[in-house]
Design goal:
The chain is mostly helical. It has one helix spanning 2-31. The chain contains one helix and no strands. The chain crosses the membrane at residues 12-30.
Length: 32
Amino acid sequence: MNRYCMIDYEIIYYKIISVICFLTLGLQTSEV
């Protein structure tokens, strides 16, 4: 179960970083 929990956390963490990167690129594009 620990492995499954870790995998879930890794996926959620990766999704959060992807969203942050996407928003950051969007803001940079808007500024330019």
